[in-house]
């Protein structure tokens, strides 16, 4: 699927991160939410109530729709800057089996 967002400064340095095991080359210094959207990833988690996909909505830390898990800690992707080697996972839904 082709990303619906495009990088306005494609010549800036890039770092490699992983989302759910998938390696992604993303712009250095970008927020995780923006970097994942640029990589074509729109659904970051599923809502616990209905299982519907969720992704960034406000991009400023107010809505919590962009929650991801980094090193076992649930964080807002829009408030997290990417860095080389960052390992990101979807937040497990209650009742999901641990990997």
From TrEMBL:
Alphabetical keyword list: Oxidoreductase
Keyword Oxidoreductase: yes
A family per Pfam: Fer2_4
Domain (2Fe-2S ferredoxin-type) ranges: 13-94
Official protein name in the record: (2Fe-2S)-binding protein
Organism for this UniProt entry: Mesobacterium hydrothermale
